[in-house]
Amino acid sequence: MIIAFEGVDGAGKNTLVTAVEKELIAREVAVARLGFPRYEHSAPAHLAQEALYQRMGDLTDSIHGMATLFALDRHDVADDLSELDSDGYVVLLDRYTASNVAYSAARQTVRDQTKTGSDSLVHHPIVEWVASLEFGQLGVPVPDLQILVDVEASTAQERAQDREEQDASRSRDVYETDRILQRRTVEAYRDLAAAHWRSPWHIVDASDDDTQARAEEIADIITNALDVD
Length: 229
Description:
The protein is of the alpha/beta class and 229 residues long. The protein is 54% helix and 11% strand.
């Protein structure tokens, strides 16, 4: 199984993935883990990072350009992910294609000022464009399950700011400091989850600190699915 954990920066994805990994290992499940973007291991991801810190001129102005860099990062390991899946591993991913979709759609609607409270971003043209690019042209495997680590944008922003103050190496990039973009991205993720975009989704409320309970809940879902298979 390939399982993607999604959510805005500061939602608590890394903490939850770590807890789920530990829980699955305790249950003797074969686990592999990877996080995106792979800034230190991928040339496209590194260039995207440079752009996010405004060191690549006007590259961040291009929504499709940034989305392509993030997609190419996944393309680099697409075969590895498929092989791990075929070999029986549960592959835990901290961010995946839905992150590219959510941020791209949110950026586009912020730019166009087209989003209203009743509109679903699932039907935005850029959603299908990213999916076609990653799952179609670049051969990135479709996940079997997606976990939305859901918090209000304001809570995620506070956590990211606190993290930045405690660790200078975790400074926020231009996406993370844009409050309107973060709010729209939360909306986009919720739209994707509600529509079960490309796979089943499971939503966890990460507004509190009960990570272990959430990890056990997700591990139960995974192990039950493995038993059915």
